């Protein structure tokens, strides 16, 4: 049976739904209407209903959405009922910041190790993960069930490392290097280009400035 293709825009909004619903759970909120969720997320109520209808709807007319149930269901859609083992390639400032972010583990993403070429970093600990030499990378992947590799190395090194990671069985790559990776289509890549994000912010600030001049 042909699976319905979900747009990237919808997928991009799912983590926001999950986060906002999690905030509501912490406040012991039991239910919420699409209008109330719309006011919080700055997305139209119609858009919210359309997004959720891609996965079954989850709401009841006259009631709205059960917060705990919807939060759990979106978590399942995002695959958060699974545990993911992560390695980080590059133990510089960005790599260490990722490893130190405790909320990842709460979501089921466990950093198992970092890898670097710097002798000063090798053997140090970042939270509970050890920084290991790059020479041990292949063996570590082979001996541990690694689901995701985060790449935080300079762009010149990233394509070579990514190719090796794929060769050694990695199926998911979280790419922070400012370069596009040419990898087989069965490999899932999520690009996080920080400079591009900052340039988008610059554009929006520039537009607003011109509007007020």
In short:
The chain is of the alpha/beta class and 213 residues long.
Structure report:
There is one protein chain. The protein is of the alpha/beta class. It folds into two domains: about 10-75, Winged helix-like DNA-binding domain superfamily/Winged helix DNA-binding domain (Arc Repressor Mutant, subunit A, Orthogonal Bundle); about 85-195, NAD(P)-binding Rossmann-like Domain (Rossmann fold). Helix content is about 45%, strand content about 15%. It has nine helices and nine strands. The protein has helices at about 10-25, 35-40, 45-55, 65-75, 95-100, 105, 135-145, 160-165, 195-210; strands at about 30, 65, 85-90, 110-115, 125, 130-135, 150, 170-175, 190. The strands form two sheets. A seven-stranded mixed sheet has the order 5-6-4-3-7-8-9. The protein has a two-stranded antiparallel ribbon with strand order 1-2. α8 links the parallel β7 (about 150) and β8. It is globular.
Biggest beta sheet attributes: 7 strands, mixed
Helix fraction bin: 40-55%
Mind telling me which CATH architecture of the largest domain this is?
A: 3-Layer(aba) Sandwich
Q: Provide the gyration radius in Å.
A: 20 Å
CATH topology of the largest domain: Rossmann fold
Approximate shape: globular
Between the first and last Cα atoms, what is the distance in angstroms? 56 Å
Total helical elements: 9
Strand order of the largest sheet: 5-6-4-3-7-8-9
Low-confidence stretches: none
Q: Strand tally, please? A: 9
Quaternary structure of the protein:
single chain
What is the H-and-E element order? HEHHEHEHHEEEHEHEEH
What's the mean pLDDT score? 90
The number of distinct structural domains comes to: 2
CATH superfamily of the largest domain: NAD(P)-binding Rossmann-like Domain
